[in-house]
């Protein structure tokens, strides 16, 4: 039996088998720099057949594989463990857009395509690929699919799962499943596609996908509303959806503290209101008709909200620059947080109807456990998804506070589960939340997941130690 | 060990264990009357706990279970085989709407709820549950979920899978999985929900679901367009979506022959055009704003289509009665077919961009194999879904033609697969298409399905013989 790495070199060429510390380093640490693993090698195949041949070699030698796209994940799902026995399999060289079908409104892509390139290729055909998130300049669609990524367009277009019609997957046996169907309706057996989506590479390696495209909206406008409370934000969401239907494409909640943090750290950014308000909602409306139509619709909805005392005030962006400025406020919250110091982050979701009650219940629990701690609460309220982050009390060092991370998680996640929510809305499980998953999922559900993992990957070579 | 039926009676009461021929008869024959099975008994539990207890009893006695909702399926998926060793487990008594959350826009229901009752309950809260199909007065949501039913609203709202956020399932071990989440985002492990949806009861019994609701549109208008060819219909779809975005909620293709058949069999129905045209498209637009808005949008789109010679002519319904009349034309096609005689039916889907080529290629193949046969081609073109039915040549008896069913299927399904399509768009596999599935699916995909089935239902008691 040939040596494992010799076999890998024979398959993909010496250049693409990285086994020096310098060569491997960029693939071993997660994006936030919280964890560094070790690897036997980093493998960079250039085709689906090469991926399949590498997997068969891993099977032969019982080597665990960690699939990696842009390595922008937030739950340590795309880096190897510290054993040094696993290989990283980078999909980055599989980066072709294979086909665009503007009539079927589909695009067939390699898993290693950067999300932004896919957005641009769709736009060049007059179409929209709606998935949009902070890492879009470096994340890959394979990673988006493996984690069922969310982002800012879920309200209208759904998660990555809803944007995918077909997959190509290399199985844990090193076979190629060609499920690249561009069909809106297909009821021929079990839904393997949705099983691989969100499985974080633990059931197989996604190598290609057929994505859904949409008509490009003709206009997109933005407004910022000021509100008395999260309960008012819930009411505003119902009102906006009743008025605007699917034209409502963005609905982002930000607390007063979030915008104060942004103003402190980025004083050059706009301050839309003279006086502070307890809560803000960033609204985005898209129209398939015209800018005039979008503005008319938005003004009518805002008028109704003012009249019914659902909002205190609102500003509508009247230029692209103003619109970008409002979105910058939202996008700078995590950056302002990072500049201000460490905090304990949560990526949670709740039934939209429970959000105000959840915040009202959980904030006092945190205050009781960690007097003076500061809640940084913002997120995609339209999807029930909050980034519910907790910053240390004034005077406490970041390090001291991070020692309490598990207790902070316990307060927040216990409350989330009590309100019927999820401890991971859009980031996945990886290794970061694996113990939390085991704590909160029912044994019935965990046993079904383990049975599926064992059935499809009996040797346990696919992204070992992630999720389960 | 107690006798099996005695145990069942102890769990659900004597009244709800049917074992006489008369009592069982309504549950043993499929809706189209093509097949009658035999059963040990029909079990009618009244609660989820009773379902679970019955499944555990079936496990103990190794008795196969056939879950049944409204028994309106079209692929023999909800009737037992002829062995007489299986039981039918009817979910019909689980028919409560458990909760409606108008802010979260969700409804939690028992699996045995009739689809139409769910639609009505949503409407009473000012909401829309968009799933709509011919059998809605008698089919149950559990069956809709088990088969991932399609229907006329898929273009805008997706299949049943896209309308479901959470499930409650009794597993093949008789445990209850409580996955009744009302969350738009939840990335906590494998997507079990979508695995059970569309599995036709072969992996577990769906007993409850959380469904997505939408705002009720303020207006909905209908038009009928006349076109030279299916290729023009493809162009019209692109044009309508570019003009109207998600306001386009219906797009149904009907050939000249379809409407002639309807006119022959139902002469009282409207005839919108004085002269015949090769193809027709039924268009439906919904507006979250007003009727005026919908009409304006539709007239603008139709104007553009006429200007670019995409359509020959169009009539817009100006009243609810006219709109209903246009939909009746579409809905009476299968009824007219049934009155005119038997035919070989296909429920296929294709990439929307391939539909015209598929029809142009396949019609001559059928004509060559069965000279004089008549194609009855209509369906949800917006989803790429055609009901591509073949009627006997004039002079050939229905019976003689039905002897050719397998050969007709071979011509049509070979062509579907060559064009990248699906042999079952919205009806599922059941036993009717099980051999076709085995013929057309890749061994890689079939093996993954079999591995999942064996992992979750190792005793093989869940709807044995269906799909695989």
From TrEMBL, chains A, B:
<dbReference type="GO" id="GO:0022904">
    <property type="term" value="P:respiratory electron transport chain"/>
</dbReference>
<dbReference type="InterPro" id="IPR016167">
    <property type="entry name" value="FAD-bd_PCMH_sub1"/>
</dbReference>
<dbReference type="Pfam" id="PF01565">
    <property type="entry name" value="FAD_binding_4"/>
</dbReference>
<dbReference type="InterPro" id="IPR016171">
    <property type="entry name" value="Vanillyl_alc_oxidase_C-sub2"/>
</dbReference>
<keyword id="KW-0274">FAD</keyword>
<feature type="domain" description="FAD-binding PCMH-type">
    <location>
        <begin position="35"/>
        <end position="216"/>
    </location>
</feature>
<keyword id="KW-0285">Flavoprotein</keyword>
<dbReference type="InterPro" id="IPR051264">
    <property type="entry name" value="FAD-oxidored/transferase_4"/>
</dbReference>
<protein>
    <submittedName>
        <fullName>FAD-binding protein</fullName>
    </submittedName>
</protein>
<dbReference type="GO" id="GO:0003824">
    <property type="term" value="F:catalytic activity"/>
</dbReference>
<dbReference type="InterPro" id="IPR006094">
    <property type="entry name" value="Oxid_FAD_bind_N"/>
</dbReference>
<dbReference type="GO" id="GO:0071949">
    <property type="term" value="F:FAD binding"/>
</dbReference>
<comment type="similarity">
    <text>Belongs to the FAD-binding oxidoreductase/transferase type 4 family.</text>
</comment>
<dbReference type="InterPro" id="IPR016166">
    <property type="entry name" value="FAD-bd_PCMH"/>
</dbReference>
<dbReference type="InterPro" id="IPR016169">
    <property type="entry name" value="FAD-bd_PCMH_sub2"/>
</dbReference>
<dbReference type="InterPro" id="IPR016164">
    <property type="entry name" value="FAD-linked_Oxase-like_C"/>
</dbReference>
<dbReference type="Pfam" id="PF02913">
    <property type="entry name" value="FAD-oxidase_C"/>
</dbReference>
<dbReference type="InterPro" id="IPR036318">
    <property type="entry name" value="FAD-bd_PCMH-like_sf"/>
</dbReference>
<dbReference type="InterPro" id="IPR004113">
    <property type="entry name" value="FAD-bd_oxidored_4_C"/>
</dbReference>
